[in-house]
Every structure is written in structure tokens, then in C-alpha cells.
Amino acid sequence: MADDDPAVSVCFIVKIDDFSLGAFNSCEGLGCEVVMEQREEGGNNGYVWQLPSRIKYSNIKLTRPVTKDTEKVTRWIAGMVSGVTRKTGQISAMTADGRVVARWSLMDVVPVRWQGPSLSPENAKVATETLEIAHHGFLDSGRG
Known about the structure:
Layout: E1 11-16, E2 19-24, E3 26-28, E4 32-40, E5 48-57, E6 60-65, H1 70-78, E7 87-94, E8 100-115, E9 128-134, E10 138-139
InterPro entries: CHP02241 (IPR011747), Phage_T4_Gp19 (IPR010667)
Pfam families: Phage_T4_gp19
GO molecular function, one term: structural molecule activity
């Protein structure tokens, strides 16, 4: 398999600073958007300038079946009770055989929401959890 083969069976390993939260099988919202401002040019009614103003980063939602690593997530969130401390995060996309396909380092990560499993004896499906995190942008992978 070549190094530039696309990721097929991917899981996402998540670390906060050097603390691993384990593997997640779904990662949504990893991205950014350049916010554009429109400025009409005086005296030229047929032209509107499109000016980039800032970059907006979306929240990231990570989902997986409940495992022993769920305790790590709740421990991290419980540590925020005495005050929110922004951390460096890292998400690594891995193939089924454990190779890193891509890695994203995130600055100023904080947990926004955690949704635990809905447990019911009438509903026999896999119990899942979802962690939503916010961040202030990407870091150079060599620094994260």
C-alpha cells in the first residue's frame, strides 16, 4: 500500500495535551471557514469587493461506542469544575492496521458537550457516547 493511499477503514485517536482519550469511530466538523466581508466600491455600481476578515472554526463532534476510555472523557470534563483550562488537542486518522493517515493539532481545546448513552432494556443496540469540543484553530503538526 502506498503512503498516499486514501484512508478507508478509519478510526480517530484523540489526545488532549499528552493525555489520550482513546479511539473514536466518527469525527464530524473538522474544518474552518474564511468569513468574507462585502464592500461596495464608491462610484462603481457594478463591483463589490469580497474581503477576507477572519477564520471561523466549527466545533468537532466525536462519537464511539462506550468503552473503558469513556471514563477518561468524563475525568477530563470533571477537571473543568474548578476552572476551564484550554489545552492542546490532537486528532489522528488511523487505518485499520494502525497507520496514521492524517493528523490535526488543535489550539485551545475545551469540551463543549458530552452526551452519554441512552440505556434501555427495550432497545438492544450499541451504547454510544458523543464528545463535542471547541478550538481556536490549527497548529503546525510539528508543534502539536
